[in-house]
UniProtKB/TrEMBL annotation:
Gene3D superfamilies on file: HUPs (3.40.50.620), Riboflavin kinase-like (2.40.30.30)
Keyword annotations from UniProtKB, A to Z: ATP-binding, FAD, Flavoprotein, FMN, Kinase, Multifunctional enzyme, Nucleotide-binding, Nucleotidyltransferase, Transferase
Recorded superkingdom: Bacteria
Stated family: Belongs to the ribF family.
SUPFAM superfamilies: Nucleotidylyl transferase, Riboflavin kinase-like
EC id: 2.7.1.26, 2.7.7.2
Database matches in PANTHER family: RIBOFLAVIN KINASE, RIBOFLAVIN KINASE/FMN ADENYLYLTRANSFERASE
Molecular function per GO: ATP binding; FMN adenylyltransferase activity; riboflavin kinase activity
Pathway assignment: Cofactor biosynthesis; FMN biosynthesis; FMN from riboflavin (ATP route): step 1/1; Cofactor biosynthesis; FAD biosynthesis; FAD from FMN: step 1/1
One BP term from GO: FMN biosynthetic process
Organism: Ezakiella coagulans
CDD domains noted in UniProt: FAD_synthetase_N
Protein name per UniProt: Riboflavin biosynthesis protein
């Protein structure tokens, strides 16, 4: 039998981790199997184009926390189940269910923690975990999405399982950066991933066997008035990587995008950006 928890777990943030860690702890103590039930989508009210993590990243994170069984429920198949029907399935597979204080389930979210507690028996127990708070606010995926959209990546990252990241294929851009000494790699972003506030960021970069830092512009290059792009000037790197997979961890916000009156002004600004990046790297990543 399983000890389990249920949720979408986007970002696998500190609140999710408290639930999952409790599942693993109880399973080890009772020689049971730690399990997670998650969903393939948020449902009609969800923002499926604003995911913090891809499904693959989420599954990997949950497994790394010690979970053995991960069941993905098809949201459209369960959204109209009554609370009685949904709980009957869970009780047939689990002997302990770990949930948060505001856990809801069943058609129209009619099931709650009080209902679960009333339906405990000798073969089914419910463990309710307190919310994890920050500055008087509950840590939630919604809170973290808002932080990312506001450019507060450093704070968002401190609440997540791992730094917010974007992975995709390096595609051809306009090639303007290389003409004035700031060659960039243009990343094709996953369509369903949330986009941070437009601006310039310090990023960690992984491509092929290279791992290092760079500065990433997300949004529209105001000086040139071009379309949306995600461009990274990778420090100490000069290989051609078109068509390769690249992963960016967005570390910290540097500034908003702004138009420059000349290429020389842009170069001067980029020099200042890189100097700021190097200062952050020295303070936060040098041991």
């Amino acid at each position: 039998m399983n000890v389990a928890t249920i949720g979408y777990f986007d970002g696998v943030h500190l609140g999710h981790q408290r639930l999952i860690n409790k599942v693993v702890e109880l399973a080890e103590k009772e020689n049971l199997t730690p399990a997670v039930y998650t969903f393939n989508s948020f449902g009609n009210n969800g923002k499926t184009n604003e995911l913090i993590m891809t499904r693959g990243e989420k599954v990997r994170a949950i497994k790394e926390l010690g979970v053995k069984n991960i069941t993905t429920l098809i949201f459209n198949s369960v959204k109209n189940q009554s609370k009685e029907e949904f709980l009957a399935r869970i009780k047939s597979e689990c002997c302990v269910l770990v949930v948060g204080e505001d856990f809801r389930f069943g058609r129209n979210r009619e099931g709650d923690v009080k209902y679960l507690m009333r339906n405990q028996d000798d073969n089914f127990k419910v463990v309710v975990m307190e919310d994890v708070m920050i500055e008087g606010e509950k840590i939630s995926s919604t809170l973290i999405r808002n932080l990312i959209k506001n450019g507060e990546l450093k704070k968002a990252n401190s609440l997540l399982y791992e730094n917010f990241q974007m992975e995709g294929e390096v595609v051809r851009g306009f090639g303007r950066g290389r003409t004035f000494g700031y060659k960039t790699a243009n990343l094709e972003l996953p369509k369903n991933l949330i986009r941070p506030k437009y601006g310039v960021y310090l990023s960690k970069v992984e491509v092929d066997d290279f791992s290092g830092f760079g500065m990433t512009m997300i949004g529209v290059a105001e000086t040139f008035g071009t379309r949306f792009s995600c461009e990274t000037n990778i420090f100490d790197f000069d290989k051609e990587i078109y068509g390769r997979k690249m992963k960016l961890e967005i570390v910290d916000f540097l500034r908003e995008n702004k138009a420059m009156d000349s290429i020389e002004s842009l170069k001067k600004q980029l020099m200042q950006d890189k100097k700021k990046c190097m200062k952050i790297i020295e303070e936060d990543f040098t041991f």
